[in-house]
Write a structure and sequence with these properties.
Helix content is 26%, strand content 24%. A hairpin with a 2-residue loop joins β3 and β4. It is globular and about 50 Å long. By secondary structure, the chain is an alpha/beta fold. The protein starts with 8 loop residues before the first helix and ends with a strand. The protein has a domain of 68 residues.
Length: 104
Amino acid sequence: MQAPAMPAPEEIALLEPFERIGLDRIRLVATTAQAEAAADVLLRAPVWGFDTESRPTFNAGEASQGPHIVQLAMPGEVFIFQLHERGCADIAGHLLAQAGIIKA
């Protein structure tokens, strides 16, 4: 599969300026209760952005134990799920398995 071509500088200049989301709209999800509340909000949006992060490994051949964090974003709000708490991990997995929601 060939990667899509980069837009030309003239095309980029026509785009609306990107406005970053404010820190007040980023939610750290570290407990089951917080994960349940985040799920209630996220399930109202038809599209999410998502990303995962894992702690690095420093030894050759060492297997990663991650992901350790899942980030789910919708317009205007971001939720960062810390997966060390079983309830957070279970709810994040349930959210990612939702059919009918576009995850990109």
